[in-house]
Specification:
single chain; 116 residues; alpha+beta; Double Stranded RNA Binding Domain; five-stranded mixed beta sheet
Length: 116
């Protein structure tokens, strides 16, 4: 777990050394912003924070191929603001996943009703 000032050039040049599965780097200017570099070469931004229960959590922001460093910092700021207001961002994501997809709804709820 290293702390450094993340820049576009540093992110581009960082890589995971042989024998390690992943490395985590934290940005000095953006609280909680973490860059995870995997042995496969994949680089992903995360926000690490402490939830209302005092547990440390990690929320995936996105990969470096999809987001720039500036976009990741802005998103981390937005997420930290939501957390400060008491929102559990991981719970919101879990709740969204529990909503059934249309095909699943039709198969499990609608078709049995129609067949009767």
């Amino acid at each position: 777990m290293a702390k450094l000032l993340l820049t576009k050039e540093i992110i581009k040049n960082l890589s995971c050394p042989d024998g390690k599965a992943k490395l985590d780097f934290f940005d000095l200017r953006c609280k909680g912003l973490m860059l995870e570099i995997r042995a496969s070469g994949r680089k992903t931004f995360y926000l690490r924070y402490v939830d209302s229960r005092g547990d440390q959590r990690q929320f995936r922001i996105g990969e470096t191929r999809d987001l720039s460093l500036d976009q990741a910092k802005k998103q981390a700021d937005k997420l930290r603001a939501r957390i400060a207001l008491g929102e559990d961002i991981t719970q919101t994501k879990r709740a969204r996943k529990q909503v059934p997809k249309l095909a699943e709804f039709i198969e499990t709820s609608y078709l049995p009703f129609v067949k009767t």
